[in-house]
Each structure stands twice: as structure tokens, then as C-alpha cells.
Amino acid sequence: MSNKTNYTDHTISIIACNNPGVITKVTGLINRRGFNVESLTAGKTKDTGISRMTLVVKGDDEGIEQIQKQLNKIIDIVKVAAIKPQHRVAREMALVKINLIRGDKGDLFQLINIYKAKIVDTSPGGIVVEVTGPSEKIDGFLDLLPHNAIAGVARSGVVAMNKLSKQTNE
Fold first, then answer.
1. What is the CATH code of the structural domain delimited by 89-160?
2. What is the chain's pLDDT, residue by residue, as a tens digit (170 residues)?
3. What stretch(es) of the chain map to CATH 3.30.70.1150?
4. Is CATH 3.30.70.260 the right assignment for the domain spanning 4-83?
């Protein structure tokens, strides 16, 4: 493997039969190749027997190409395709549990408004906020919150697909 400083995030779309153990096979393959899964999401498609996974792996181009070739060899995999940054639409969702601190409420609600986040739950001591968008947007939102105000974060992982074009009908 090449120098880890040359590693970048690669997004891979995987269409697979909706069979038990498919995700284990995919993550096992990634692990055996010495890579770490940065993000993995999976869900059913319009065909109940088929699932779609979005996998984000940090690595060099050569290593990721090898992963894609190996993924294609898994019996339950129907299709594997790289999603290039310039051709993709990608979103992530995060739920953020925030402790309400007396003096920060005005700034907090302004931040929620700026990031077009939604308050999805309230309690006497805090709120739960939903933030949706590119991962960088969620990172930015979290970076601007006072560290002691964050009581918990749950992130969905990246969901991505190629933009619709004449060349791709994915």
C-alpha cells in the first residue's frame, strides 16, 4: 500500500441481493484488504429483493480499484460503481442532543436557523436537533456548538448516488 497521506475518501455504490450476511461479506473484504470503512449505509430499493449500500472508504485509487474488483466477485453483489465527487449527490443526517445552557439559547437558536436544522424533540434540560446535508455541513454545525452543550450525536452515514445524466441511469 502507498503512503497514507495520499489517501482520500472514495464513495462506492453497491447493489446487492437482500440476503443475510451481505454486509458482513462487504465489510470483511474491506477489513482484509487493510482499509477502514468511514461510512456505510444500506437500505431496500423499489425491488424488495435488492438493497443499495453506500460505502465510503479512505484509500488510494489503486487500492480502491482492487476493492471494487473483489466486491464484484461476491455472489450476492449485483453491481459495484464508484461515485465520483463531481457526479454525485450526497447527504447525511445527524441527530444532536444539546443541553440548554442559560446564556447560549439565543445563539443556539440562531445557529439552528442558519443551518436550517429542525428541533425534533424538546425536554426541560435540552433539545434534539436534526441536521441534514453534506457531511461538511454537519461537521460545521457541530464545530460551532459549545463542546459542553453536546450531550450526544448520532449520524446516519453518507447516502449518495450519481446525478442523473445521459451517461448514467443509476
1. 3.30.70.1150
2. 445 557 788 999 999 999 999 999 999 999 998 898 999 999 999 998 999 999 999 988 898 999 999 999 999 999 999 998 888 899 999 999 999 877 667 888 999 999 999 999 999 889 999 999 999 999 999 999 988 899 999 999 999 998 887 554 54
3. 89-160
4. yes
The DSSP secondary structure of 37-76, one letter per residue, reads EEEEEEEE-SSTTEEEEEEEEEE-HHHHHHHHHHHHTSTT
Reported pTM: 0.81
Whole-number Å distance between alpha carbons of 119 and 110 = 12
